């Protein structure tokens, strides 16, 4: 028998509902969802909540599916709950997108619930998973193969999805419906072993009950214990992730490889999953095979090696760094601007600006030591000053060297990441590179005892955040 106090205990323990919440309740018309709607309606004054019913007709069962929708509409009307009903061809959607019927149904259901939630301004979406669903899910994932996170099965709450009945046995749900005269709809396909979950429910669990009559409760308890351990590891992984991650403005996350390559595989796996989720805003992007590929990439630590992942994510190693990005190659950055005297020239492509002025030698007190402010011999400069980024074949005469060096080799010496090389501004005259800004000046333009006029030039990074 379902005790409302037990449901309230679950709600309060897992913080499923807050006072004044608006909640969309997923109602299929079956015993679980009908029980859920009725119970939440009984508790609406306790939590001062506003309920909305939502029913999606999958069009799997013809006239029976239409009767389900009619039943849900009538139930909501009797309970004075606003109801939203939508019909969609799930079979066609599955064919068009290459999903199984179960996958397509789940995706479209939650899209619909999100639509209703947004329309009414709801804070939560309540679904009717119960103790038996928990046990079945755990067995499904064990048979498929999964780690500890997968074995935690269904959670009481994930984001705005809440499951108040997750601690309740299906038999108690059916009894509750009888006592309150709810007469829910019965989907007879659930009584046939035609789907994977149905086979587990109808064949595997009854076999396991021969060894443990309380197997459903045991499996659900196992999932809860595993969740407790998994949550602890997640906390450690999140702390490490936040400590090591560097977030760039251009869809890129960077880790120091020597900060993660010694981590326990359990922590490393979670950190890699967090990075993918952080980048594309979606959970469970990476499968086991992807984690294996990334682990090998980290262990080899060879600059330039990369792995392509789902949702357009590319991961590559670059000078002892592991980089996650959704940027696409081929969008080559290019800029070139003539500089104007006594004013700053904006370089919007790199959120920077550069300015200069000219003074006499006796006005210079000290040679600037700042990496973004330098002094040059003005009289050695030919033509106009230009700021641009790199070009194929660029060469440069670094200060203190006896000859030129390929700009590419200079970047390699300084371990400038490949994806950043196009963003390095170069100060040039019409013949030579004068300054690789932020790195080296040219020996050809250094200030000497013979210098009469001095060019003072300064680069600034503009903060557009």
Give a quick summary of the entry:
It is built from 16 helices and 22 strands.
Description of the molecule:
Helix content is 40%, strand content 20%. It has 465 residues and is of the alpha+beta class. It folds into 3 domains: 4-225, HUPs (Rossmann fold), CATH 3.40.50; 245-325, Uridine Diphospho-n-acetylenolpyruvylglucosamine Reductase, domain 3 (2-Layer Sandwich); 336-461, Phenylalanyl-tRNA Synthetase, Chain B, domain 3 (3-Layer(bba) Sandwich). The radius of gyration is 32 Å and the shape is elongated.
Strand content: 15-25%
Number of helices: 16
Provide the domain count: 3
Helix content: 25-40%
Low-confidence parts: none
Shape: elongated
Q: What is the typical, i.e. mean, pLDDT?
A: 90
Q: Which CATH architecture of the largest domain is right?
A: 3-Layer(aba) Sandwich
- The CATH class of the largest domain is Alpha Beta
Strand order of the largest sheet: 3-2-1-4-6-5
Number of strands: 22
CATH topology heading of the largest domain: Rossmann fold
What structural category characterises the helix and strand content? alpha+beta
Key terms:
465 residues, alpha+beta, Rossmann fold, Uridine Diphospho-n-acetylenolpyruvylglucosamine Reductase, domain 3, Phenylalanyl-tRNA Synthetase, Chain B, domain 3, five-stranded antiparallel sheet
What topology does this entry show?
Blueprint: H1 4-13, E1 22-26, H2 31-42, H3 44-47, E2 50-57, H4 63-78, E3 82-87, H5 90-97, H6 101-120, E4 124-126, H7 131-144, H8 148-151, E5 157-158, E6 161-162, H9 170-179, H10 196-208, H11 215-244, E7 246-248, E8 252-256, H12 257-260, H13 265-280, H14 288-300, E9 306-308, E10 314-317, E11 321-325, E12 336-338, E13 344-347, E14 352-360, E15 373-377, E16 386-388, E17 395-396, E18 405-406, H15 407-413, H16 418-421, E19 426-428, E20 433-436, E21 440-441, E22 453-461
Parallel strand pairs: 1-2, 1-4, 2-3, 4-6
Antiparallel strand pairs: 5-6, 7-8, 8-11, 9-10, 10-11, 12-16, 13-14, 14-22, 15-22, 16-19, 17-18, 19-20, 20-21
Helix pairs in contact: 2-9, 5-6, 7-10, 7-11, 11-13
């Amino acid at each position: 028998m379902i005790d409302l106090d037990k449901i309230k205990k679950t709600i309060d323990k897992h913080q499923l509902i807050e006072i004044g919440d608006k909640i969309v309740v997923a109602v299929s018309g079956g015993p679980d969802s009908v029980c859920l709607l009725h119970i939440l309606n009984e508790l609406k004054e306790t939590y001062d909540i506003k309920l909305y019913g939502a029913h999606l007709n999958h069009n799997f069962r013809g006239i029976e599916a239409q009767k389900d929708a009619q039943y849900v509409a009538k139930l909501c009307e009797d309970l004075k709950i606003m109801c939203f009903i939508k019909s969609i061809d799930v079979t066609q959607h599955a064919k068009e997108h290459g999903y199984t019927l179960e996958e397509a149904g789940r995706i479209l259901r939650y899209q619909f619930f999100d639509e209703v939630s947004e329309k009414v301004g709801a804070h939560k979406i309540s679904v009717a998973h119960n103790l038996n669903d928990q046990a079945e899910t755990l067995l499904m994932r064990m048979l498929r193969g999964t780690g500890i996170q997968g074995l935690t099965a269904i959670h009481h709450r994930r984001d705005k999805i809440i499951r108040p009945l997750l601690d309740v046995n299906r038999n108690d749900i059916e009894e509750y419906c009888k006592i309150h005269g709810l007469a829910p709809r019965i989907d007879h396909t659930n009584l046939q072993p035609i789907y994977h979950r149905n086979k587990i429910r109808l064949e595997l669990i009854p076999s396991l009950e021969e060894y443990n009559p309380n197997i459903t409760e045991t499996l659900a308890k196992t999932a809860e214990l595993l969740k407790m351990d998994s949550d602890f590891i997640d906390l450690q992984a999140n702390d490490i992730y936040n400590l090591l991650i560097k977030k760039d403005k251009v869809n890129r996350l960077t880790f120091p490889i020597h900060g993660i390559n010694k981590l326990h595989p359990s922590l490393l796996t979670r950190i890699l999953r967090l990075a993918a989720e952080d980048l594309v805003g979606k959970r469970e992007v990476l499968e086991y095979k992807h984690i294996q590929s990334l682990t090998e990439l980290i262990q080899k630590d060879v600059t330039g090696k990369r792995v392509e992942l789902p949702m357009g994510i590319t991961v590559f190693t670059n000078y002892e760094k592991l980089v996650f990005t959704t940027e696409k190659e081929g969008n080559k950055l290019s800029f070139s601007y003539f500089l104007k005297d006594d004013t700053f020239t904006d370089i919007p492509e790199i959120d920077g600006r550069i300015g200069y002025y000219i003074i006499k030698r006796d006005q210079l007190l000290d040679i600037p030591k700042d990496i973004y402010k330098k002094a040059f011999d003005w009289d050695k400069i030919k033509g106009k000053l230009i700021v641009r980024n790199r070009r194929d074949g660029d060469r440069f005469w670094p200060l203190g060297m006896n000859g030129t060096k390929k700009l590419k080799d200079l970047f390699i010496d300084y371990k400038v990441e490949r994806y950043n090389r196009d963003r390095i501004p170069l100060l040039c005259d019409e013949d030579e590179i004068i300054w690789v800004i932020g790195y080296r000046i040219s020996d050809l333009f250094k200030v000497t005892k013979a210098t009469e006029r001095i060019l003072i030039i300064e680069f600034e990074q503009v903060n557009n955040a």
